[in-house]
Amino acid sequence: MTMLRLSGAHLSALEAEAKRAAPHEACALLVGVRTDDAVTVSDIHISPNVTAGNPARMFEVDPGLHLRLQRQARDGGLAVVGVWHSHPGGAARPSAEDRARSEMAGWCWLITGMSGNVMETQAFLAKEDDAHQLEPVPLVLV
């Protein structure tokens, strides 16, 4: 089973961004390496939420940031391996909107749910044969 490996410092930075952005969804891209049994995140890149929809219930990563990171990662032997976003006032699980917008098979989705002062972050993997199916995977802090 694939797991998502993430540093505690990166998780803390993402959760701080979720708090800062509330009541809107925050988002970031995850850069790292993929092996048969793990996706290891080496860097996170916070993005402005550029959604044209409702930013309290939707997110869109800046496409310019995504393109720049793809080029930089490729040159460094890495890849954009996934996306993170927050659910202010919601659970740390994919919404129907998340599933509908998931198009990158094999990408990890990291979601931070917030309920009052309680935060929970969970990891999911977009299935190779159907990117709209986001299956839970273990989140391992390194």
Task: Give your account of this protein's structure.
- This protein has 142 residues and is an alpha/beta fold.
- Helix content is 23%, strand content 39%.
- The protein has a single domain, classed as Cytidine Deaminase, domain 2.
- An eight-stranded mixed β-sheet has the order 7-6-5-4-2-3-1-8.
- 35% of the residues are buried.
**First-last Cα distance:** 18 Å
Number of helices: 3
Which CATH-level-2 architecture?
Answer: 3-Layer(aba) Sandwich
Q: What structural category do the secondary elements indicate?
A: alpha/beta
Biggest beta sheet summary: 8 strands, mixed
Give the proportion of residues in helices.
10-25%
The CATH topology turns out to be Cytidine Deaminase, domain 2
Poorly predicted ranges (pLDDT <50, ≥5 residues)?
Answer: none
Mean pLDDT: 94
Rg, Å, rounded: 14 Å
CATH class: Alpha Beta
Q: What portion of the residues fall into strands of 2 or more residues? A: 35-45%
Number of strands: 8
Topology:
Blueprint (H helix, E strand, L loop, with lengths): L2 E4 L1 H14 L5 E8 L3 E10 L15 H13 L3 E10 L7 H6 L6 E8 L2 E9 L7 E4 L1 E3 L1
Parallel strand pairs: 1-3, 1-8, 4-5
Antiparallel strand pairs: 2-3, 2-4, 5-6, 6-7
Please describe the structure with a list of short key phrases separated by commas or semicolons.
23% helix; 3 helices; 39% strand; 142 residues; alpha/beta; Cytidine Deaminase, domain 2; globular; eight-stranded mixed β-sheet; 8 strands
Concise structural overview:
This protein has 142 residues and is an alpha/beta fold. The chain is 23% helix and 39% strand.
